């Protein structure tokens, strides 16, 4: 068994466009990774793996490279797969699921690849619970405690990665009450970090829905790692805690370090409002579950009635998109009203907006620059930001 000091290739997977943010988050932890399409790669030991899972706000999962080889025949695949030290990540009698993709490769039948890989796992660790499950590209997120491996063939080169996170990292555990069109927690954090907000200036989300943006803001302002976003400050579950090579003492030291960094309260006001009463009830319940009930001030009000604290600070908004036909005209008016209200009530503040298209964002009527480009629920979006000018 490798020692926990062994450094290994690690990868923090992100949604497209969020790579530089995850890279900056890692840098703040003293980890220098290389941003690549889809995430950030670096070489590190167990401490890095534990810290990245516990602390990264913008990454979806963290993986460990298990093997890299070329295979053009099933014989070659079997030979290499049997040399992979599966027993590091799969306990005896454990469950495994595979996500297999193949592009431009001689071995293209994903089901047949999965079968050979599962046989190789059983060859080393003995029979698996349930015989192993093959997940499709997006599915299988609820496959319980099964250890996931991501098997990818591109031009006959195979990489196998062990998923260290388990449930996706946006599932911090606090958001159970939902309003309409909730934002992924990772994207909420990305909007904040991508807009340049660092937790030291007031923050207002006047269309906060279930509260994702202000709750993520409160977590940042208090220095609470996203993996500790609950009143007990107990870590959420991670796949790596079931690995045979898991080092419980090291993990508990990593959790203790993160707990010690938590500030007792946010030093700046964080406000969330929405015109929908049910959304604000959901947001307040979520904030309580995240362990930040006193760090966000929620209120029911339309954006036209916002009452920002002394600033300047940041206004961060995930407005309605209106993807359905007939929704665009009222939305144009709404975006224009947002611009008028902000020019009137918070000149000099920074506005950051998740924008579905240029035409709607132009309605806001102020210069906005692109800070990042990603997708939200399958819709391409841009985070645009700018200084709110004075006057209606
Ligand atoms: C896309 S959702 C925001 C989702 C939120 N970021 C979350 O994670 O749950 C847009 C929100 O804008 C709110 N909204 C729409 N028009 C509004 C207005 N004029 N004033 C205040 N809120 C408004 C809706 O009630 C809805 O909750």
Summarize, please.
The chain has helices spanning 19-28, 46-55, 74-81, 110-125, 185-194, 212-221, 248-260, 277-289, 328-345, 358-363; strands at residues 8-13, 34-36, 39-44, 61-70, 96-103, 133-135, 147-154, 157-163, 203-205, 270-274, 297-300, 314-317, 350-355, 369-376, 379-387. With 392 residues, the protein is of the alpha/beta class. It has 2 domains: 8-163, VC0802-like, CATH 3.30.2130; 185-225 and 263-387, Rossmann fold (3-Layer(aba) Sandwich), CATH 3.40.50.
Q: Would you write up a description of this structure?
A:
The chain has 392 residues and is α/β, with parallel strands linked by helices. The protein has two domains: 8-163, VC0802-like; 185-225 and 263-387, Vaccinia Virus protein VP39 (Rossmann fold, 3-Layer(aba) Sandwich). It is built from ten helices and 15 strands. The protein has helices spanning 19-28, 46-55, 74-81, 110-125, 185-194, 212-221, 248-260, 277-289, 328-345, 358-363; strands spanning 8-13, 34-36, 39-44, 61-70, 96-103, 133-135, 147-154, 157-163, 203-205, 270-274, 297-300, 314-317, 350-355, 369-376, 379-387. The protein has an eight-stranded mixed beta sheet. Strands 11-10-9-12-13-15-14 form a seven-stranded mixed beta sheet. Helix 3 (74-81) packs parallel to helix 4. The N and C termini lie far apart (67 Å). The structure holds S-adenosylmethionine. S-adenosylmethionine binds next to helix 6.
